[in-house]
Amino acid sequence: LLQSGPNAYSHEILGVLGELALTMEKLPSWAAPQAVKKNLLTMRDEAYIGYEPLGVVLVIGAWNYPFVLVMQPLIGAIAAGNAVVVKPSEVSENTARLVAELLRLWEGLTMEKACPLLPSPRRITWGKYMNCGQTCIAPDYILCDPSIQSKVVENIKATLKEFYGEDVKSSPDYGKIVNQRHFKRILGLLEGQKIAYGGETDEASCFIAPTILTDVSPESKVMEEEIFGPVLPIVTVRSVDEAIEFINLREKPLALYVFSNKKQLIRRVIAETSSGGMTANDVIMHSVVPALPFGGVGHSGMGAYHGRFSFETFSHRRACLIKDLRWEVLNKLRYPPGSTEKMNL
């Protein structure tokens, strides 16, 4: 993916180190039995939820972040006491070899779209074009009023030059498409589209310049699948109602982003849409908060991980009740014969 050292560290390694530190610190409290509220018949007893391993967990890595997307769920699965089978992405061969080497070292040791109003160009540009757009929660498209479409384009263009310079291809902070198959897939999405900026490509190096599409039809091919590349379509809508309807007519996304200085509007979008996660007035950042679960809903995935949520995802929550052999007088309430007095209690 041609990531620079600082980018690789911040995108891949930092999250793993943070996940590991958090899990080591919090695991005793996560694994502790969770006391639950008791009723009259069990008030003298011990009732709790205990966590036990699911058994064997399969972790399948992805090539866009081939290290962190293997190691974070692996940490949670091991913390929960599971045996883990790891299948790194075959596309990222070097990272797969590194993961295999690291796991061998551990043998024998016990021990995780839309912005209706007022888009913020720097935050959107960073999240969309980081890792050459190959981020599962990168903004897939922008929804905005027709009156501000040209301003949105100009702001993002200026930000791209600020981030990557005049020659983006030579920037150490801009990557490449993972292989030629995905390169050609993304090129196919550009067919028939109005390119407002970018569009330059080089098949030999799998390079696609940051690209902005305008006046995009909701029925076009580029809107029918996850882009997973540096192509940003802009679809115009004339109201928040129309934006919400647009989102809800599609499969539930992994992430949703809304930009507004009105908290009431933000809360409305949250209440009237569904997504795996969401961030208001920024993109991607909900995924870096260890106390928040990271995962999808419906079409975008099931379950969640990160921090405690990794431990819970890879554990079976076992209902446990240990009865007290005394206080048999309370048990008489459930024994026959029945009576009106017992029912009233």
Please describe the structure with a list of short key phrases separated by commas or semicolons.
alpha/beta, Aldehyde Dehydrogenase, Chain A, domain 2, globular
Oligomeric category: single chain
Tally the helices.
11
What would the average pLDDT be, to the nearest integer?
A: 86
Distance between the termini: 68 Å
Share of residues in helices: 25-40%
Order of SSEs, N→C? HEEEHEHHEHHEEEEEHEHEEEHEHH
Task: Report the sheet with the most strands, covering strand number, pairing sense and barrel closure.
Answer: 4 strands, mixed
User: What's the CATH H-level superfamily name of the largest domain?
Assistant: Aldehyde Dehydrogenase, Chain A, domain 2
Give, in spatial order, the strands making up the sheet with the most strands.
Answer: 5-10-9-6
Give me the CATH architecture of the largest domain, please: 3-Layer(aba) Sandwich
Radius of gyration: 25 Å
What is the total domain count?
2
Query: Structural class, from secondary structure content?
Result: alpha/beta
Question: Can you describe what's shown?
Answer:
This protein is of the alpha/beta class and 345 residues long. It folds into 2 domains: 5-112 and 306-322, 3-Layer(aba) Sandwich (Aldehyde Dehydrogenase, Chain A, domain 1), CATH 3.40.605.10; 121-299, Aldehyde Dehydrogenase, Chain A, domain 2. The protein is built from 11 helices and 15 strands. The chain has helices spanning 5-31, 68-79, 93-106, 121-129, 149-164, 180-190, 240-248, 263-272, 308-313, 328-331, 340-344, and strands at residues 34-35, 46-53, 56-60, 83-87, 142-144, 194-197, 201-202, 207-208, 211-214, 231-236, 255-258, 277-280, 294-295, 304-305, 315-322. The strands form 6 sheets. A 4-stranded mixed β-sheet has the order 5-10-9-6, covered by helices on one side. Strands 1-2-15 form a 3-stranded antiparallel β-sheet. It has a two-stranded parallel ribbon with strand order 3-4. Strand 7 (201-202) and strand 8 (207-208) form a beta hairpin. Mean pLDDT is 86; it is low at 105-119.
